[in-house]
Amino acid sequence: MTARTEGLRARKKRETRLAISHTATRLFLERGFEAVTIAEIAEAAGVAKMTVTNYFPRKEDLALDIHEEFVAGPAATVRGRTPGESALAALHRAYLDAVDRREAVAGFSGAPFARMITESPTLAARVRELHEERENALAEALAEATDEIAGAAPGLVARLAAAQFGGVHRILFDEALRRTVADRSPEEIATALSDAASEAFALLEPSLGGYAVRTDE
């Protein structure tokens, strides 16, 4: 198999995944998440039901297609912090960048999409799971950064720090959804989130401001 053939196959897979996700989102917004079946999504997307489940093993992830980026983001930020930068400073900086770019991982979406999430018990539960998964991934990154590994798991301080940082991200995400459902403009939401983030991270500064500072050059 040539590199060109592999590239074409990879592109075809990305296009198929995106088409399925877009079709599912359209149906969810039209009829509500709970009312739409995988079989109906497959039929509307022109693919087999098994194709849908191969790309999206969980129905919830058809609506929350950024779940991998959402979970991995803060941990990647900690691992990529600059020399002399603490975990807190890196996470605050990355969050403000996400708000400036109006990223979905920060909670930016249209009001219909935000309502779909908040009105679906299944999706709301999945969002809570994703927050927990993100906190666990962040704890692992913090443990690596501070050499605090307890057996094969992050140590206590790393888990406590991740819980504090994760709590800030979770509350800010909920605030973004709440303001979106209330039909606030993206600009107004961005201003409110930036201000709230600065206040929240400032509250953590006394205890975590000097935590996990990168010392290598």
Describe the structure in your own words:
The protein has 217 residues and is mostly helical. The chain has 2 domains: 3-62, Homeodomain-like (Arc Repressor Mutant, subunit A, Orthogonal Bundle); 67-208, Tetracycline Repressor, domain 2, CATH 1.10.357. Helices cover 73% and strands 2% of the residues. It is built from 10 helices and 2 strands. Strands 1-2 form a two-stranded antiparallel sheet. Helix 5 (67-79) packs parallel to helix 8. The chain is globular and about 55 Å long. The model has no long low-confidence stretch (mean pLDDT 94).
Helices and strands in order:
Layout: H1 3-31, H2 38-45, H3 49-55, H4 60-63, H5 67-79, H6 87-100, H7 111-119, H8 121-146, E1 149-150, E2 153-154, H9 156-181, H10 186-208
Antiparallel strand pairs: 1-2
Helix pairs in contact: 1-2, 2-3, 5-8, 6-10, 7-8, 7-9, 8-9, 9-10
Do you know the CATH topology of the largest domain? Tetracycline Repressor, domain 2
Please give the order of strands in the largest beta sheet: 1-2
Specify Rg, calculated over alpha carbons: 19 Å
What's the architecture of the largest domain, going by CATH? Orthogonal Bundle
- Spans of at least 5 consecutive residues whose pLDDT stays below 50 are none
* Overall average residue pLDDT: 94
Note the beta-strand portion.
Answer: under 5%
Query: Which term fits the overall shape?
Result: globular
Number of helices: 10
Distance between the termini: 42 Å
Structural class: mainly alpha
Query: H/E order of the elements?
Result: HHHHHHHHEEHH
Major sheet, described briefly?
2 strands, antiparallel
**Level of helix content?**
over 70%
DSSP summary, beta strand count? 2
CATH class of the largest domain: Mainly Alpha
User: How many individual domains?
Assistant: 2
